[in-house]
Specification:
The chain is an alpha+beta fold. It contains three helices and 16 strands. The strands form four sheets. It has a six-stranded antiparallel beta barrel with strand order 3-4-8-7-5-10.
Length: about 325
């Protein structure tokens, strides 16, 4: 006899079997849901290796670009600051030189130079006036002259200083820097000045032994008399512009005066070259006064500035 087993389904399972099947199903569903949630959380919180490499590359490119921009801006600022420093130094030196040379005794400007140094020397005016009478050959020699009352170059009352000299009608620098002990010439030392008399009386201190007084070589067409003291020199050497003063007048020109008071005016100057002189004097003509041409070259850290300037000498003998 054949025995046929009954078909077992979920519906005809006993109650206990149905309960167990439902429990297993719910457990599997919870595990599946938990796996999906966990996978989503891991996907949202992490980076792949490719993404990390791409970010590093982008940050590197941005860093290179930004650093290059900052470096270029910094270098531009440094270059501008250096150029401004050079220009300011050049302007100060040129302006100071302009003012002093314009106040020089006529025809007192001369150039002293050698292979490594160039100097511009001149005699600043302390005061100037018109004279009433001076001794000029063939007149009798005299150690006095009369002048119209005057003030100094600062429009203050003139006070006689040791070393003051009187100059009349200088046409060449050799007539100013010549021998001051000669009783005939265009430059004489001043011994005293009488300001109580009108006109004032100036007494010259170079009197030849034997009672012979002084004679001026020539009269000035405009009767101009200049009073000066010690020379001033501007010298360029070893990349520096130096001003010298408080030294004695000497007949022979020389570079960098000895026993003088130096003052640094500018640095970073180009080297002196005989083919490109720094100072040039253009003599006076019938149409214009004398001129001093100045060409100063400044250099620092590959920055080059050249200042060319012409100084018009306004004073005439």
């Amino acid at each position: 006899m054949n025995v046929v087993a009954p078909c077992v389904t979920r519906d005809n399972l006993p109650y206990s079997s149905k309960t167990e099947q439902a429990g297993v199903g719910r457990s599997l569903l919870r595990q599946k849901n938990s796996f999906v949630v966990s996978r989503q959380k891991c996907t949202q919180q992490g980076f792949t290796l490719v993404e990390l490499i791409m970010v590093i590359v982008l940050l590197g490119v941005m860093a290179v670009g930004i650093s290059g921009f900052i470096g270029l801006s910094t270098q531009t600022y440094i270059n501008v600051a250096q150029r401004d420093e050079l220009v300011a130094s050049a302007r100060f030196a040129i302006e100071r030189l302009n003012r002093e040379v314009r106040n020089a005794v006529p025809n007192s400007v001369r150039i002293n130079s050698n292979s490594s140094t160039q100097c511009l020397e001149f005699l600043p005016i302390v005061a100037s006036t018109d004279y009433v009478d001076i001794a000029v050959a063939p007149e009798p020699a005299s150690d006095t002259l009369t002048v119209i009352p005057f003030v100094n170059h600062n429009n203050n009352a003139y006070i006689l200083n040791s070393g003051d000299i009187a100059i009349v009608y200088p046409l060449y620098s050799s007539e100013i820097y010549g021998d001051l002990t000669n009783h005939i010439g265009k430059v004489f030392g001043i011994s005293s000045i009488n300001t109580t008399a009108v006109p004032w009386i100036i007494t010259l201190d170079h009197v030849v032994v034997g009672g012979v007084g002084n004679l001026f070589a020539q009269d000035s067409p405009n009767k101009r008399l200049y009073i000066a003291n010690t020379p001033v020199s501007y010298c360029v050497n070893n990349g520096k512009l130096i001003r010298y003063d408080n030294y004695n007048i000497v007949a022979n020109s020389y570079v960098e005066p000895s026993n003088a008071s130096p003052a640094l005016m500018a640095e970073n100057l180009a080297a002196v070259s005989s083919s490109a002189p720094i100072f040039t004097i253009q003599p006076a003509t019938l149409k214009r006064n004398a001129q001093v041409q100045i060409k100063l070259g400044f250099t620092q850290n590959d920055e080059h500035v050249i200042f060319a300037n012409d100084i018009h000498l306004v004073n005439v003998p």
